[in-house]
Amino acid sequence: MTGLYLKILSPEIIVALTGALILIADLFDPAASGRKTAAGSTAGEADGAAGRTDGSADGNARPAPRSALAWLGVAGLAVAAVAVALLHKYADSYSSVRICFGSRLGPCPLNATFLDGALVLDEFAVYLKYVFLAVGALALLLSVNALPRFTRHTAEYYALVIWCTAGNMLLASAGELFTAFLALQLSSLPLIVLIAFAKRDPRSTEAAMKYLLLVLVATAVMLYGITLIYGSLGTSTIAEIGNMLAEKAASHEPLSAALTIGFLMFLAGFAFKATAFPFHWWAPDVYSGAPSPVTAFLSVGSKFAGFALVMRIAAAAFFASHASADWSLIFGILAAASMIFGNLGAIKQTNIKRMLAYSGIAQAGYLLVGIAAASTGGTSATLFYIVAYGLANLLAFSVVIALINTRKSAEISDYAGMSRHSPLAAFCLTVALLSLGGLPMMAGFMAKFYVFLSAAESGLIWLVVIGVINSVIAIYYYLQVVWQIYVAEGSDSQVCVGRPDAVAMALCAVGVFAIGLFPEPALRAAERAALALFSWW
Amino acid sequence: MNAAAPLMGLPLLSIIALAPLVGALAIALFGGNPRAPRVIAFVSATVCLVSTVVVWTGYDRAIGGLQFIESVPWIESLGISYTLGVDGISIPMLALMSIVLFTGVLVSWDIDNRPREFFVLLLLLVTGVFGVFVAVDAFLLFFFYEMAVLPMYLLIAVWGSTRKDYSAMKLTLFLFAGSALLIVLLALVYWQVGLGTFDMRVWAAHGFSSGFQHWAFLLALVGFGTLIPIWPLHTWSPDGHVAAPTAVSMMHAGVLLKIGAYGVIRLGIALFPEGVSYWWMLVAVIGAINVVYGAFCAMSQTDLKYVIGYSSVSHMGYVLLGFSMASGAGAQWGLEGAVFQMFAHGMMTALFFALIGYVYEKTHTRKIAEISGLMERTPLVAAGFVVASAASMGIPSTSGFVAELLVYIGLIRTRPVFAAIAFVGVVITAGYLIRMLTSILLGEPSIAVKPLTDPRPLRALPIVMLALTIMAAGIFASPVYDTIASGVLPLVERLTGG
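Predict the joint structure of the above. Result:
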């Protein structure tokens, strides 16, 4: 069986090894080894230079961007993506009896559990694994030119991003609460280091400190919740929990207080990861303090990890019980509050990283709308929204990072006149913001529409109304940035976009339009993934 | 068969809707040469105009209903298809947009501030508008509608004047607020019909419960009505007209407002007949307020663009009055009048804004008090003002006369009280327009007007074209009227029969 486990975990293993490989490759890099021997005497100076904010003077002292390692990482993640594609084959060889459904959606879906349900390989897991791999690869590309600004430890940085990705991927197929917890830790802990990576910048350290404390609190609360669930039901396997709740529902036995509290505490851990109400307030501080490529990674990868965690449990456990309407209401309230707090907070921001942090809170709200719908359609809408939001947000950050690399500033007023001196970057940022705002031709329009449509199907009209009102508010602050870009007069210095950034930017921009104009393939994939979660119906 | 026969095999509606988009892409990619953008835009506009003429002449009024249907599956998971088609209501709107686009490109010929971006955005806007008029799928209609809003924002914010940032943002937020209601409407109707389709033909065939019809109609009325604009949600509109650059004002007042009215017909009246009969009083009251209040506001303006901006509010009131009759015996008069008014008002405001834009460009003022003696300096512009005002006042031999006549016949027959109230609007309209005309056309040329001369042929062409269309539609009204009637008739049958 060990061979099988190696096979079904091969994507995560490949990712983890890629991280190690980068560290090893770094040892053989002549430029890097020269730097390391000299580190004893000049480290302080060099780091000081890297931390300074005046551009040209320390240009020579800075190490050149080392894109080879990043491309190595991207290649590793690509190999892992191939391994994910091969999972179908392994699972088929493992289980001979399979129930096949959904001919319209393509071939027979993947559906297998391993290790007594601790690992689940289904379309949902596969879908999210692809998403996390893509997010990781784009985060690597966006880091290349930004890294020399704040650190010399390039290899370590890339390795941490990649390991974090491995944690996210594992989380996607965790079918048991303690496995999920472990995977969540693997996904959170590298982030603490990453946020603190600009060690000469006090804001970075402060952000990492905040994140560390909150991660500890959130995971402690969550772990307590898990033990309460385990204590009440005697199992921690999500599928089992679902069955037991369904039995309780059949015999009209109410949920015990311990169980309810356990679920609520579990939700707290999720809300922290997903920057959803009521644990959203750390996001603006941490996002603005962290080095910007880390912010980009955090705003997408970490948020989706939260959703990966909660969607499986919501579908299997919360909505299987007779209290499903109550849970739906709770998710609806979280969604509404996230949208309202996020959007109102974003209006008066002058720093684009803070604005995107608040907008990310609001977007977590839209993502939650699909979960609150408590249906295949809703889950599928959330999964589709994940892709649309991920592409648009990374596209926005690719431009933000390029501007920070050029001018060391993240103020919205620095975008004034951008359309004149850097029309392509300006266009990309506009597309990203408009997609986040939900304008047609861009992915966000389709995603928002789908989410609201599925919420209406479940009768959550009040949530749809709150959602659409919020999208009007959101348009206002996104347009403020567009106004700066196209209308305001400003500096004439061109924004330099490095090659890896340009690749990431182009991929995201093409993705945003492709999904906005031809959403059918992505919709079907999301639908397949959602069906996997609700196959018990 | 006519000369256009060989063209009938082409996917004409797609060409109309997508030619501007292709033009916009071409300008974005190859518009480096300073003259290229306007030439490409002109070519797109010409393609649209020619295709529209072919569609109008090729449309078989005897058969009626939706024709030139094109259908391609688009998002099958949700039952969304790229389905286009036109009937007697959409064809005049297409014609309106084509003419306004063609003339709008010509009046923007000499734009020197970032022409490339200007024409890209203008053509994107136009794609959205055309798309709304040819869409048969409700999602597609909404998609195109939202597409038109953002270019509008940038066009006003970058190339506009007079509080442009404020007006642009106000307009955008109002339109998005309206469209937010439409998302709710679409989602509700989609699940209510329950057939997994956004095809409006299927929706129209569905029997909705009365309670649902009441509320859904109200959603459509307010959602699209923001764009008409209905009182009291009208305030963005005059501000937007004034702030926008000339071509955009022409499109904005000329065509964009019609999207609102068109949407109310397609997603309101056609789907929810009981909703109309339930709310007819509200629609009629709002319509009457629009007519009278808009006229009063126009009377007190000193800026030419604001006069026309509020007169739009007033004139769109007739469209609402027409809608209010849809539930009763006057349905045919009312709807025909409403659609004719949409067409007529589009032409006259486009002409007004083309004229005002030309005067403003040369004199840098739009204050009525600072302009006089246009007749002496530039007879052509003066003649244009007279034709547009005549249409606006509803004087015979202009398209405005036919439209108002239809509405008033219906009103007097079925809702005489509202006819009496609305008639106050006619008097005030005549009052402020004649006062405006005497002030700006007659007398000695003021200092500002001194440098003004007749426009060169390129700039004169839009004025002549629009003025001739207005007269033609007024004198030889039957081609326009018959087309509209063929589109309205099935609707009337459904409204009165069901």
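The longest strand of chain A covers residues 111-114.
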